[in-house]
Structure formats: C-alpha cells, structure tokens
Amino acid sequence: MKIEEYLSTLPQSILSGEEIQIPPDTIREIFRFTNLGKNDIFYHLGCGDGTSLSIAREEFNVKNAIGIDNSEKMINIAKKMINERNILDIKVIEQDVLEAEFNDASVILCWFMDPEILEKMMVKFKNLKKDTKIITIWAPLPGCVPEKVDFPYIINKIPLNETDDLKKQLLAVFDTECIGFITAWEYAERYTKAIGRDNPENDRFLVIIQALTIWINAKNLGVACGDEMPDSIKSYIAILKEYFGIEVEHLLK
Predict the structure, then answer these.
(1) N or C: which end of the chain has fewer CB within 10 A?
(2) What is the crossing angle of helices 231-244 and 181-194, to 10°?
(3) 108 forms bridges with which residues in the sheet?
C-alpha cells in the first residue's frame, strides 16, 4: 500500500496528535533552547495533561502558564494535577485553539500535526506582539523561515520572516547547502528521540520513515546532494516495501 493509505489506517487520535504527549525531558530541552524565564507568559496550545505548564512554572519560574486543549479528558487530568500540587499562576482552558485568545503571550508552544489547523492559526500568530516566540517541532510555521533551530525544536519569532521559497525554508531548518542520506538519518533520529514514547522497539521504523520523508522532500525541491538516489535510500525504500508493504517511491517527482 502507498504510505498515505498506511497512515489512514492509524487511529485518528494519533494522526491528530490528541493522544501524543511531549515527554518531560523534551519539554525541558525546549524551554532551555527558548531561554524561558521569569518574565515570560507561557502558553501551550494543545497542552494535554498539563506537564509542560507545571515544568514552566515550577522549574523555569514563568510569570504565568496557560494551557489550552479541546479534550475534556486531558483538561480534567491537568486540573487534578494542578490542584493536588497547589501550583499558582497556572491555568488550563478547555477550548478549540482556533477560538482561543493568547495575545498576552511571550512564548507559545504548539505542536499541531494537522497542517490545516496551522494554516488557520497563522492569522492569529501574525497579530501577536513583537518578539513573541512560537515554538514548533519538526517544521517551522507554514511559509516561514525560522528565527533559530536546534532540530527538531524551532523558534519562530514575531514578526514572522515569511517566504514562498521552500528551498530556503528547508535549508534553514537543516542548516546545510544540500541534504544527503546521512543528514536525513541524523535529523530523523533526533526527531524520533525527542518524541519517543514507551515503545522504543518502534524507533527504528519511525527513523526510516522520517529519514525517507526528509530526503524525498529535499530531492523534490532540488536540494538533495547529488543527482542520483543513494544506495542507502534505495535499500530502505525496498525494506519498507518488502517487509512492511509500504510504498513511498511514488512520492518522488
């Protein structure tokens, strides 16, 4: 089956990111990368169980931490945690992020896997106050060159540096003049480690998928190293097809 068909077989909660929580150590890495501190008003859009909010308040001493999520289940879990630990200056709101207001934010963390949601959020983001940081994972905001990158963590800053040059955007994220297999594999491993869950046995499979995605996108945009497909890429395309029944070669343009 084509990879698009494979993805369609996964639970919708996984595809939407609803059931995916960023691990605590990853949250701390993001906050250190962002230089989160006592003068910040921190928002997490899609805050889940509120772990990021508690870390922001208790370990990074932000002025206020606000979480927004449309899942009643997750918001209740977050509220319970906040009440049990009696954390001050922290708030969670059950709301669709498309309807939310966060104009007082200085730092925003958002990891939406649905590109349609991100596109709609761009109007809100562009109206934020100057120097507001928007932290994304894996990719910058649509049509924007990031302010700073420590892959897979990306800082987008207001006013946004917009571009319609996808090559410029891709090279800014990967900090290289061309993308080869080694670069694609290294960055895929970084991403997989950052979002790692309790099933590391699946990491190899995820790295293969991510590395191929990075390289194929680079090839289609004309920023892959060399004109020929590397043998390693050919091998992993074959492995996916033979052992997992997943076909990705059609993505090459």
Answers:
(1) C
(2) 50
(3) 43, 134
Residues 185 and 144 grouped into a single domain: no
Query: What is the rounded CA–CA span in Å between residue 105 and residue 65?
Result: 9
Whole-angstrom CA distances from 238 to 96, 116, 246 are 41, 32, 9
Could you give the CA distance from residue 43 to residue 46 in angstroms, rounded to a whole number? 9
What is the Cα Rg of the chain in Å?
Answer: 19
148 & 193 share domain: no
Show Cβ contacts of residue 194 under 8 Å, excluding neighbours closer than 6 positions.
23, 26, 29, 137, 152, 153
How many folded domains does the chain comprise? 2
Q: What is the CATH number of the domain that holds 99?
A: 3.40.50.150
Count CB neighbours of 187 within 10 A: 22
pLDDT band at 16 (very low <50, low <70, confident <90, very high): very low
Instruction: Tally Cβ neighbours within 10 Å of residue 83.
Output: 9
pLDDT at 198 > cutoff 70 = no
Give residue 9's identity as a one-letter amino acid code.
Answer: T
Expressed as residue numbers, the domain containing 156 is 12-163
